[in-house]
Amino acid sequence: MISKLFGYLKRYLFLIIIILLLALFNVIATLLIPILIGKVIDFTIGINQVDFGEINKNLIWIFVCVILGNVLGYLYEYLMSLICEKIVLNLRNEVFNKILHLPLAYIDSHRHGDIVSLIISDIEQVSNGLLQGFKQLYRGIIMIIATLLFMFIIKWEVALIVVLVTPLSLFVAWFISKKSHDYFTKQAKIKGELSGYILEMVSNQKNIKSFCYEEKAIERFKKINQELYDIGVNAQFISSTTNPSTRFVNGLVYALVGIVGAVNVVKDPINFSVGMLSSFLSYANQYTKPFNEISGVISEVQSAFASFKRVITILDVKDEIDEGTNSISLPVHHIQFDDVNFSYQENQPLITHFNLEINQGEKVAIVGPTGCGKTTMINLLLRYYDPNSGKIYIDDVNTLDIKKDNLRKAYGLVLQDTWIFKGTVRENIAYAKQDATLEEVIQAAKFAHAHSFIKRLSNGYDTIISANSGLSQGEKQLLSIARLMMLQPDMVILDEATSSIDTRTEKKIVDAFSHMMKGRTSFIIAHRLSTVQEADKIIVMKSGHIVEVGKHQELLAKNGFYAKLYHQGIVDI
Question: What global pTM score does this model have?
Answer without folding.
Answer: 0.68
